[in-house]
Amino acid sequence: MVDGGYVVTNNHVIELAAERGRIEIEFGDGDVREAQIVGRAASFDLAVLEVAEGPRVQPLEFGDSDSVVVGDTVIAIGSPLGLNGTVTTGIISAVDRPVAVGEQGAESYFSALQTDAAINPGNSGGPLVDVNGRVIGVNTAIDTVASPQTGGQGGSIGLGFAIPSNQVNNVVQQLITTGQATYAVIGAVLDIRYPGTGARIIGEEGENSIIPNGPAENAGLRPGDIITEFNGSRVTGPDELIVAIRQNQPGDTVDITYLRGDEENTTQLTLGNSTD
User: Which residue ranges does UniProt annotate as crossing the membrane (predicted)?
Assistant: First the structure.
């Protein structure tokens, strides 16, 4: 919970109930209350709920995820497989790990904190906290190995991912204030099937894969261009580029290096904005 009776969770946790059903929150003392949706940000896989009345609880404080380093001890809290109040521990295995989750066409992108703390189905939306009890992330996804014995659903193999608290806090404040969250875009459709290195703008000349008068067009980019660097950092694929874009704010100006055929070019691009 955050101050004011708001509850932060993953969008994918409440998605089905939001479309056809009701959402209930169970507190630590077993009290169950109905919750209302304040806002959802599918692009960040975050949602904010509100409980009008409920038991008095002390909200967890957000920590500074930018200060987190590899090797820091962390604690994951959640209800894996319905086992309420489960606590697991581990360390931060990596920071700024580009992660895309969700079905094709409805993915959420974020620069994740990676941890080896056991995270399983049911942990989603729960906090990842530091040794001082401050929230440094929201547990969101795992990489796993499925098997026939688990019905195709695998468990923790020490590869868990959390949305960093600084990004969470930014999105949450937008959702509370306006009910929606804004994110930066370049105004071009990327080719997720491109097998090479870099992020290719889909299509060929004359195809409608670049927004007219949008950021990419105004920066001189064309369909078929392959973006290889973003603000001085190498781009290996479309997921990595989208995560990098969303770490910036709409209106920021960034440096782009791209290939057009065999020719390498550079340009500056002013990021546009979009909302869920």
Answer: none
